[in-house]
Amino acid sequence: MNDYLTYEGYLGTVLFSAEDEVFYGEVYGINDLVTFEGKSVKELKRSFEESIDDCLECCKELGKQPDKTFKGSFNIRISTELHRKAALISTRQKISLNDFVKKAIAYAVEHEKDVDNKLVSN
C-alpha cells in the first residue's frame, strides 16, 4: 500500500482525518507549502494535481524556481557501533567514510524495492 501520490515528478503525502472525514496531504519537493484535500480518493487526486499545476503556473509567472533546493550535504545521527562498523569498512576499502556513505545511499536508491522489503521484514 502506498501512502503517497505522484504527479509531474512531485510526491504528495496521503493522510486521513477521521474527525473531518477528509483525505489530505502535502506536496514534497516544492519550495512553498502546497497542500491538497478531498472527500474521496478521486477528489484527492484531482486536488493534488491541481495544486501542483497551480503552484507551477504561479512560479512561472513570478519567474521563481518551484523545486526545493538540495545542497548535497546533511547531518545524520547513527549509533556509535554503526559508525564504528562503517568506518572500519571504509578503511578496508581505502575510501573516506563520506564516500562510503555516498555509495551506501546510492545503492539503497538504486535498489529501493529490495531495501524497502528488507526494512519491512526486520
3D structure, described in words:
This protein is of the alpha+beta class and 122 residues long. The protein folds into two domains: 4-62, no CATH class; 80-121. The protein is 48% helix and 18% strand. It is built from four helices and five strands, in the order βββββαααα. Strands 1, 2, 3, 4 and 5 form a five-stranded antiparallel beta sheet that branches. It is elongated.
Report the order of strands and helices.
EEEEEHHHH
- Any idea what the shape is? elongated
The N- and C-terminal alpha carbons lie at a distance of 18 Å
Level of helix content? 40-55%
Structural class: alpha+beta
Low-pLDDT residue spans: none
Biggest sheet record: 5 strands, antiparallel
Q: Taking Cα atoms only, what radius of gyration do you get, to the nearest Å?
A: 19 Å
Strands, count: 5
Strand content is 15-25%
| Averaged pLDDT | 92
Overall number of domains: 2
Continuous helix count: 4
